[in-house]
Design brief:
Helix Hairpins, seven-stranded mixed beta sheet, alpha+beta, 17% strand, Heat Shock Protein 90, 502 residues, Beta-Lactamase, five-stranded antiparallel beta sheet, rod-shaped
Length: 502
């Protein structure tokens, strides 16, 4: 988790660094351009002031001569020269050209020597024609800026001022911009780093808790939970899904432990009995004349053990992922009649009354016939077990839309209210071992699994007396059932004819 945090921080900081560098460069060139424009505006204003002062003069063409009339003009020109090292040329209303050629040459002879008379004269002509110019050109081998301003009086151009200076003098002094931008960028990087660190930590903290919970779960602790109220929406959804998974795994683990405990209990009981009876007969504790009695008990316990193992294997096969059904069309009413015939001895032994209440006969359904027969036999056996002598059992079917409801009802001892929700759980009767019926407690679990595989339902109905179980099946057309029945009858007749001929 720390490695992930470091990588995320590094990636985000690199992205912020690149973005800050790009914005800093853009800011520098923008501010530099604005400052150059501001200096050129200032230079244009100075040129206009010089031209205006020159227009008020008379006569003398000496630019830096002394006298009260020229003193302010000289000071203005000197200021511009000191600041920009510029060549200044002024045309007064009488067409006289005044410049500071000598002064400029004494200070920077290379710059003055590189000036072009043709360019200066051409620029002055444009200005005297009424055009304000601001151009960048090349003087010698170095770039230079030229500013020219006409002077108007009474609506006509009466003079002009031209200032030409090296571009580096205009663009100089930008170091403060670089420092300001660098300091600003450093502050932005620092604040961004702190903000990103806090944000990533706030995001990674729930992920860290999620990781620790997952590690605990991998170690077998299914009580691990995470706070699903923190983080963004996706993280909250992930935390909620994790908590749901944890709860379900805990339920599965509890069911597994309960299942193992119940299986151990159910297996231990008959094995203990068989072992005890066998050892008693072997060491003489049980007299020889009592051996037949205890051998019968051993046989009964062996049958119960075999039944339990068989039910466990059957339930395991049904719950296997590859378990499948073989669908056929059959008459459910006929199946119920055959189930009664199979249990006729048990019914007669308890003098039970059995009624069939079929809404339609025949009643064709589409399902796995062998699996549905398991369900019918199991429900009928339960009804026989828990119904007292001379009791009553009712088997009924009813078609409703696309389904058929099959109900097995009795007026026996019923199921206590507190046990109704657990009736389909595995080993529901495990705590009632050695009571009437001696069931494994897996029969109804097998029934529920079979109906789930069919996409149908089985439920315990509310009754005033006894118990009633109802399950549903997919209804099919009656003609197809009649065809199947005719086919079975024909096959039976052919089999009987072959037997007679034999």
């Amino acid at each position: 988790m720390n490695g992930m945090f470091t990588r995320i921080m590094a990636v985000m900081l690199i992205a912020i660094l690149l973005l800050t560098a790009a914005l800093s460069l853009m800011s520098y060139f923008t501010l530099r351009s604005q400052r150059i424009d501001a200096r050129l505006d200032y230079l244009s204003g100075e040129a206009e002031d010089i031209a205006t002062l020159a227009a008020d003069l008379t006569g003398n063409a000496s630019f830096f001569s002394f006298g009260s009339s020229r003193e302010y003009l000289n000071l203005k020109a000197q200021k511009v020269y000191d600041e920009f090292g510029a060549y200044i040329a002024v045309v007064d209303p009488w067409g006289n050209l005044m410049d500071n050629m000598r002064t400029a040459y004494s200070e920077d002879p290379d710059f003055v020597a590189s000036l072009s008379n043709e360019e200066i004269i051409g620029a002055l002509k444009r200005v005297l024609a009424g055009e304000t110019i601001r151009v960048q050109s090349t003087v010698g081998s170095a770039p230079a800026f030229t500013v020219g301003v006409p002077v108007y009086r009474y609506g006509a151009v009466t003079g002009a001022a031209l200032i030409q200076t090296k571009a580096q003098r205009i663009a100089s002094g930008m170091e403060d911009l670089i420092w300001r931008i660098c300091l600003t960028a450093a502050a932005v990087l620092l604040l961004s780093g702190v903000a990103v660190s806090l944000y990533v930590r706030s995001v990674m903290k729930p992920l860290g808790a999620l990781t620790r919970a997952a590690e605990s779960m991998a170690g077998g602790d299914f009580t691990a939970r995470v706070d699903d109220t923190k983080g963004d929406r996706q993280l909250r959804q992930l935390s909620g899904a994790f908590n749901t998974m944890s709860a379900r795994l805990r339920d599965v683990e509890n069911s597994r432990r309960e299942f193992v405990a119940n299986v151990s209990h159910e297996l231990r009981s008959p094995i203990t009995s068989i072992k005890g009876f066998a050892e008693g007969m072997a060491d003489g504790t049980i007299p020889a004349e009592e051996h037949p009695k205890y051998l019968r008990l051993v046989s009964e316990e062996s049958n119960r053990l075999s039944s339990l193992v068989g039910d466990l294997l059957e339930l395991s096969r049904l719950e296997r992922e590859g378990a499948s059904l073989e669908y056929t069309v059959f008459d459910i009413n006929e199946m119920l009649r055959r189930a009664i015939i199979r249990r006729v001895n048990d019914l007669d032994a308890k003098q039970l009354e059995v009624d069939c209440d079929f809404q339609t006969d025949p009643c064709p359904v589409r399902a796995d016939e062998n699996r549905i027969e398991q369900v019918v036999i199991n429900l009928l056996d339960n009804a026989v077990k828990f119904t007292g002598e001379k009791g009553r059992i009712v088997l009924s079917t009813a078609a409703e839309g696309n389904t058929v409801s099959v109900t097995v009802r009795d007026n026996g001892i019923g199921i206590p209210q507190e046990d109704r929700e657990k009736v389909f759980d595995r080993f529901f009767t495990a705590d009632r071992a050695h009571t009437a019926g001696k069931g494994t407690g897996l029969g109804l679990s097998i029934c529920r699994r079979i109906m789930e595989m069919h996409g149908q339902s089985i439920r315990l109905l509310d009754t005033k007396e006894g118990a009633a179980f109802c399950f549903t099946l997919e209804k099919t057309d009656r003609e197809e059932c009649d065809r199947i029945r005719k086919g079975l009858d024909t096959a039976a007749e052919e089999s009987g004819s072959r037997s007679s001929e034999g």
